[in-house]
Amino acid sequence: MTRFAKERRVIVWEEPVFGPPERTPRLDSNVCAESGVVVLTPVLPDGSPGEDHEAMIRGLLDTVLATVEGDIIRWYYTPMMLPFSRHIEAVCTVYDCMDELANFKFAPPELTLLERELMSIADVVFTGGYSLWEAKRDRHPNIHPFPSSVDRGHFAKARVLRGEPDDQAGLPWPRLGFYGVVDERMDLALLAALADARPDWSLVILGPVVKINPDDLPKRANIHYLGGKDYEELPRYLAGWDVALMPFAINESTRFISPTKTPEYLAGGRPVVSTPIVDVARHYGDLEAVKIAATAEEFVAACDQALALSRVRGDWLKAVDNALAALSWDETFGRMNLEIARAIAKRDPAAAVDRGATILPSPVIRPSSHKKPFDYLIVGAGFAGSVLAERLTSQLGKRVMLVDRRMHIGGNAYDEKDAAGVLMHRYGPHIFHTNSDEVAAYLSQFTRWRPYEHRVLGCLRGGLHVPIPINRTTLNTLYGLDLQSDEAAEAYLKSRAEPVEKIRTSEDVVVSAVGRELYETFFQGYTRKQWGMDPSELDKSVTARVPTRTNTDDRYFTDKFQNMPAEGYTRMFENMLDQAGVTVEVGVDFEDVRDEADYDRLIFTGPIDEYFDFRYGKLPYRSLAFRHETLDQEWFQPVGTVNYPDEAVPYTRISEYKHMTGQSARKTTVTYEYPQAEGDPYYPVPRPENQALYKRYEALALETQGVQFVGRLATYRYYNMDQVVGQALATFRRIAEREGRAVIAAQAAGRAVAAD
Predict the structure, then answer these.
(1) Best label site of 3, 268, 326, 602, fewest CB within 10 Å?
(2) What DSSP string runs through 73-87?
(3) What are phi and psi of 77, to 5 degrees?
(4) Would you call the peptide bond into 174 cis, given omega within 30 degrees of 0 as the criterion?
(5) In sequence order, which residues have a C-beta less than 8 Å from that of residue 295 and are 6 or more positions away?
(6) Which phi and psi angles does 23 have, rounded to 5°?
(7) Per-residue pLDDT tens for 473-512?
(8) pLDDT exceeds cutoff 80 at 363
(9) Residues in CB range of 199: below 8 A, 6 or more apart
(10) Which strands make up the sheet holding 202-206, listed edge to edge?
(11) Contact 76, 62 (CB under 8 A)
């Protein structure tokens, strides 16, 4: 709701409370200063007849809505709010079904009937997890699962916080904790069994006791009930635990839950022990940090394992960060908002664009009807797709539908501000550089630039930092030399070089230029990590990209144009796509619209083998996993990127974004990169057999009418950003030339008809 409030006025209507009997019904109002969300609580006179309550609440609601201008979206978290609000006219009705409320203790008998009514009038239904979606998907034609997400930045504070809350600070270690509502969903017998089995452990329980008698809670010297806590306080308590607990009972009330606390605990860096909740096992059961245990004995044993794991900060934490990397409430908001926009468009297509622009997260992302005729469907909203969408609409007046399976535009260049306010790149550092005046001039239409020359250091064994690419300073520092000229450095490198009869591989390139020792120091381990194979197995083009210098130039790139978008890449893409003829849909796969959308021509920027259903097999790619960390210090390293050539170090490099963006902030954000075989395709693997496989797909592409393949993935080449832009601009020129010839031919045909 906080994020939604940035786009619309949000009013939250709470359940009524009762005040003095002599008072008339009134509303208590509370406004969030940060978000502007208005929380209204009806206060009814105590002792008033129950049959009058609905009329009282409806009257209060109507008074409020009389002051609201514009369209209304009704958003229900419970069907119990329907009786006094069913008369409201709305452009969209949302049922956000977080739990199977009818299974909860003391659920009102009318809830089931009201939910049936709400399902019949809702335009879109969201469920709080996949299990609940599976149970309800046949009850509504437009229903979507939304498992719990997480504010990673907020809960990650638990990894670094020092100083504990007073009511927890004195408790003995080790500590295992739970926060949440203590109700019929908690397995009290299991909690007691754990306390009895490990009397030297402190079990910390935070949260209000609801719908159960507090006297029924197990009382043990090592169980500490600390009561309810504010959301802001939770990381401080979590920081003082070794292990996080989810001792849920397995009953009707927990059958469909998708606990938010699972990713919150993990974001805080704590191993989790849970009973076998379906959605917990489904989404997190493969993580070493999440232990699933069904019986009391298994639960105790799992806690022993989790406690041992908590004392080792190793690969399990990296796996956690990788698993959480794509989880954010902003992602959830974007996907929900898109479904709402689609629902509005379906009800009122003529007004869809206007209404959609007010509720969608970006001014360039607009809802559309797939049946609306488009001149072009473009798949992929990275550089290739976005440049072509902008050119086709702004220069040729075309109608373009641009789709991307991710929840954002910008492709791998997407950047965003994290919880600390640091502008960071979600998919690793993207440094813009080019020698092309055309590319620089084109992109300058959509952004201001910040001058930035990228510098990279190599961290060698023993902690020695030297410039990369290898230059004269590198040689002097590494070998204690005093080379004073380019000629002296060149002679030194020649003395170390080893002749190679015919240069075929990446190893040949380096050894023939600088010798085996420098090859092993800088290239061999790094390449093995990056590509998962030895340089002797890779095409010579891999290491040929990284030059060796004899001067003291320590810039990573030497292009004449080296700058970063002043407001970030995402803002540049937003400006690029802010064209009247562009309709952007994110979170949409090509297969979702392939046969449904109405378009004349297709531009495909995704993997070419995927387009052809992997007819000849998959093209090999190397992927990356990212670990983003925000540190409570101003700077972490002296330059934007530090490479780690040592094969024993699991990551290849660490990048610090404030060097690149020029931001000033008390904290800093860094990214560790871990190459891996599986995941999103980043780097085509340069081997002859892979290129031969691509050529088979390229032949299919040339035979496919009405489709153009553009970009890295569609042409199976590693391009820098400027090269992709250049390729897209060249593609546009060919389209414009073809369109021009078509216009001339049509005009000539028209004249011929007139003459007849």
Answers:
(1) 326
(2) EEEES-GGGSTTTTT
(3) -100, -15
(4) yes
(5) none
(6) -80, 155
(7) 999 999 999 999 999 999 999 999 998 888 888 898 899 8
(8) no
(9) 220, 221, 222
(10) 223-227, 202-206, 175-179, 243-246, 272-274, 290-292
(11) no
Strands 243-246 and 223-227: unpaired
pLDDT in tens, 13-67: 888 888 787 778 888 888 877 767 888 888 888 877 877 888 888 888 888 888 8
Residues linked to residue 379 through DSSP beta bridges, in sequence order: 403, 604
Buried b (16+ CB within 10 A) or exposed e, 460-485: beeeeebbbbbbbbbbbebeeeebee
Distance separating alpha carbons of residues 452 and 559, to the nearest angstrom: 11
User: Per DSSP, which regions of 296-432 are E strands?
Assistant: 373-379, 400-404, 415-417, 423-425
**101/110 Cα distance (integer angstroms):** 11
- Which amino acid type is present at position 730? A
Which two three-digit tokens encode residue 421? Answer: 């306010």
Edge-to-edge strand order for the sheet containing 561-565? 433-434, 561-565, 449-451
Judged by DSSP in three states, 440 sits in helix
Q: Which CATH class is domain 152-324?
A: alpha beta
- Backbone torsions φ then ψ of 396, nearest 5 degrees: -115, 0
User: pLDDT, tens digit, for every residue of 104-155?
Assistant: 554 566 777 888 888 888 999 998 888 788 777 778 888 888 887 888 888 9
For residues 173 and 142, the answer to whether their CB atoms sit within 8 Å is: no
Pairing type for strands 598-604 and 707-709 reads parallel
Cα separation of 631 and 420, whole Å? 9
Beta carbons of 360 and 366 less than 8 angstroms apart:
yes
Q: In the numeric block, which tokens belong to residue 30?
A: 């509370």
Q: Kindly state the tokens that stand for 218.
A: 């197990």
CA–CA separation, 15 and 41 (whole Å): 7
Amino acid, single-letter form, for residue 409: I
Each residue of 625-651: pLDDT tens digit?
Answer: 999 999 999 999 999 999 999 999 999
Domain boundaries in the chain?
4-145, 152-324, 471-544
Cα 741 from Cα 437, distance rounded (Å)? 28
Please choose, from the candidates 667, 671, 660, 673, the residue with its C-alpha nearest in 3D space to the C-alpha of residue 635.
667
Structure tokens at 281: 């096992």
On whether the CB atoms of residues 214 and 241 are closer than 8 A, the answer is no
In whole angstroms, what is the distance from residue 552 CA to residue 212 CA?
A: 73
Rounded CA gap, 392 and 396, in Å?
Answer: 5
